[in-house]
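Morning run. Coffee first, then this:
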Amino acid sequence: MKTLLTLAGGRSAIPAATAWYLDSLAEFRGKQALYTRQSPQTLRVLRAHALIESAVSSNRIEGVTVAPSRLQSVLVASKPLFQDRNEEEVRGYQNALKWIHEHPTQIPLNEATLKHLHATARGQIWDAGEYKEKDGDIIERSAEGQERVRFRPTSARDTPAAMERLIAVWNECHEERWAPPALALAAFNLDFLCIHPFRDGNGRVSRLALLLQTYGAGMEVGRYISLERLIEENKERYYQTLEQCSIGWHEGKHDPWPFINYLLSILKLAYQEFVERLGQVAQPKGAKAELIRNAVDRRQGEFRLSDIEQDCPAVGREWIRAVLADMKKAGELQCSGRGVGARWKRLREH
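And here it is:
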C-alpha cells in the first residue's frame, strides 16, 4: 500500500516517461476492439499458445521447469498424470489462468481471490492458499555460492493486516480515481511483492493478479500475448527494478517509478507484438507457422528443435520439424547433424 498511497491526492508527480507509456497504452486500448474483430481463427491460435506459454514462463522465472517433451502431456491432456511437483505447479498455474480468462469481469480483486490463485497455482502443497507463518528474507545466491539479502518483506505477524490494508487502499484508489488504472495496477504489484504474503509463489500470484487487473483496466492483450513470457525475456530488468524500488518501501520513502515503468513497458510490448502478429498472419492456417518463425528469430546462435519446442509449447513437434525444413529449403536456416540432436542456425544475411 506504500506505493498506492503515493498516488493519493497527487502526492507524487507522474514522470514524463510514465506519462508516455500511459498514452501509448490508451491508444492501443482504444483500437483494441478493431484488433479483436480480425481473424477469429488466428485469435484462437494465439489464445491457446499464450495460455501454455504463460504457464511455462511464469514458473520458469521461479526455477520451476518441465521438460519440453512433457509439455503436451502436462498442459494439453484432459487428465494429466504428473511425474513430479513441477508438473503439478505448471498445470495449476494454467488452471488459474483459465479461471481468470473465463470470468475476468466477475472476479473481484480481494484477499480471497489472491489466496485462491495461490492455492490453484501451488497445487497440493501444505500451505497452498495460506499466508506465511514464519519470517523469511528474500535471498540472492551468486554463482560462487555467496548469499546476500535483497529485501526484508513484511513480517509474518504483520502480513494479514498489511494485506487487508493493501486491498482497502486499492479499492479507495479506484473509487476516488487517484490515478489511471494502468498506473494503479503497477503500483499494487510492487506493494504486493514487497509484502510477500506467501511462503513461496508470490511472484506467480503477482503475475496472475496483474492479468486480472489488466482486464479490469480494459486491457485484454494478456488473452493473446503472454505477459509472463515477456517478463521472463526481460527478467534481469524485472529483478533490478524490483530491488531498486523496494529500498525504503517500509518507510514510504522508496522510488517506485522504475518498476512501474517496467510493468507498463511490458504491457506496451505485448500490444505491439499483438498488432505485429495479426499483421504477419494473413491466413488462419499460418498462425502456428508464424509462432515458430517468431521463436526462431528470437534465438541467438545455434539451437535445437527442442529449444523451439520449449518456446512453442502449444505446437506439436512434427509441425515444428516441417516449418524448420521449409525454412531450410528457402535458404533461411542451415542444419548440422541429424535427428533430435541436429543443430540449426539462422542465416542472418538472408
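Strands lie at 138-141, 147-151, 303-304, 333-336, 343-346. Good start to the day.
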